[in-house]
User: Fold this.
Amino acid sequence: MATNRINLDDFPDSAYAHELRRGLARLRFDAPLEAEYCAVHLQRVRLRVRIWFSLTFVLSVLFTVEQVRRMGFRDPASLAHLGALLPCTSALFWLVWSRHYGRFYQPASRVLVTVFCALISVFIARAVAGGREVELSGLAVNLIAVFFFAGLRFRQALVTAVIMLAAFTAAALAVGLPSAILLKSMVAMSLTSVIAAIVYHDVEQSYRRSFLENALIGELVARDGLSGLMNRRAFDEHLLRVWQHALRDQRSIAILMIDVDHFKRYNDDFGHQAGDLALRNVAQAVKGFARRPLDIAARYGGEEFAVILYDLAPEHVRDTAERLRESVERLKIRPSDAGAPMEPEAAVTVSVGVGLVAPTIGRTPQGAVQLADEALYEAKTAGRNRVVIKGEEAYVLLETGAFAARQNSGLPR
Assistant:
């Protein structure tokens, strides 16, 4: 199965590929991916949203001043302008120009945009009942804006358009708009809404497909060609992001450094093709232990892999590391063409070093990686095919220089 640019079979475990396979008819992704799409969507539409709500704010001020000048403060329409329309457009104007736009616009717009549009519908119904049918054009413009200028996703835009038509109908009946004019108005506004909805449905579907395909291209660049895991660069970038998350939320991070035992000898004895197959099998086992949104599994380099586990209790970190080691051992990875009996150590095993830290201002992600590497060194010197965990009590030892000396000791990897 393939899109125009990407073969989805190359991404068997990608959430983006999964959504493309499932199709985009629902116009909604699973929750973590939907949040990611929403953030991209809001940045893409920000300019048009700013223009639209700046214009509506200016017009609402002018209309409110005119309404109060003509009818006074005590008139119900004046009170609606002052108490609802003006505060609503003021809040939207502030929000789209503020630094809080990305975080708060989506939830706030569910209320503010809906209230604003319903009020406009009511005011226009009153104006039409007063003989100003030309103001129906304002309702048509706002219906189109709901889909294309308010920064709403399709479902929210559709609901808002329905509420607008319902508010217009209710207000028109309340003020006694003649049935013929009401019917004509509803037909025209319904057609406008249907056409806008059909076009916007296709537009959002195209946006979502482009979002998924671009993300897959990014994954392709970030993946290691042999193992299919994330590469070293993607690991370093992800570690920096989760480090900042953990620093802000006061959470812990576990870094697992995983090294294939005696891999050089295995490669020399059975050839590079057997070595590559062994690395791919180990990578598949490692990948199964990084399933949560902020976890990641990567090929760190050569025969070394790395896993980041976010906010996991120490006992669960140890259990995960042990299960990872055991899962590789149970695979009994051996060359497929070996005909003669083999020594037990010919089967591939891994050593795992774990650095478990709680990020603070004085620490760096590089220090956490070094702690995990120190633990890996101890696992290998203690006999390999084992797990060693270093936590807070070992972190200070990184400053002694012992690790750097050991790195130069020439220990076989």
Observations:
- Residues 60 and 86 are 6 Å apart (CA to CA).
- The chain has a mean pLDDT of 87.
- The chain has two domains: 8-219, 232-407.
